[in-house]
Amino acid sequence: KEMQDVQNALQCYSRAIQINPAFADAHSNLASIHKDSGNIPEAIASYRTALRLKPDFPDAYCNLAHCLQIVCDWTDYEARMKKLVNIVAEQLEKNRLPSVHPHHSMLYPLSHSFRKAIAGRHAALCLEKIQVLHKPSYKYVKELAPGNRLRIGYVSSDFGNHPTSHLMQSIPGLHNRDTVEIFCYALSPDDNTTFRSKIARESEHFIDLSHIPCNGKAADKINSDGIHILVNMNGYTKGARNEIFALRPAPIQVRNKFC
After folding, report:
1. Mean pLDDT of the chain
2. In whole angstroms, what is the distance from residue 9 CA to residue 50 CA?
3. pLDDT tier at 97 (50, 70, 90 boundaries)?
4. Residues near 11 by beta carbon (within 8 Å), at least 6 away in sequence
5. Pairwise CA distance, residues 127 & 135, whole Å
6. Which residue in 34, 66, 103, 228 is the catalytic one?
7. Fewer C-beta within 10 Å: the chain N or C terminus?
8. What domains can be seen in the chain, in order of their start residue?
9. Angle, in degrees to the nearest 10, between helices 77-93 and 58-70
10. Are 245 and 253 in contact (CB under 8 A)?
């Protein structure tokens, strides 16, 4: 699943359930595959099975709540939200990874401090993941040399038929090339849409990082391009590779307001 091999992940989870039908984690993982694939009714059924087998299962409960929001099922909504908030409060108090995703936290009656804490814990997870790479910190030139252009890099998995591209597809081509050099780094393969082709055509440099699955090597590529300002177009949305940003391949890193 981590390698985006959905079909094999589906087979593995299904086989695990065949071996042990009472394996709640396998049912929950299977549900997550269905959810990510857009099969929401199947996801709901599997999450409910997981909860029936293991009633105290925070991840399954919060993911089920998210799926019910997607299909506009408001049955017992207030009680569901109260339990979800209590789950998050307990997890944050015990310094555990919250079962609510940072992007989804905006959908629930959580305080802003809770939302910030959720994002912070997921950011800490990114830092933990990159520790295994044992990469030294990048070094940067402190000042832009006279006559050199400012290099700005946009990183996104949504350079295609996606709301991000619908909103920003003209931006790469609108920069003043006398003073700015634009790099767009795609985290997803070409979907052969006009949105993708427009961004690729109007960017001075368009690099497909989907062929570089190692976040360390992807960060090396960005750093070798000498990017001064790196823009995270994903934030905590599907397809994001925030571990690249955790490695800090550019001296200034920002996140756009759309994510």
Report:
1. 94
2. 17
3. very high
4. none
5. 12
6. 103
7. N
8. 6-131 (1.25.40.10), 150-255 (3.40.50.11380)
9. 140
10. yes
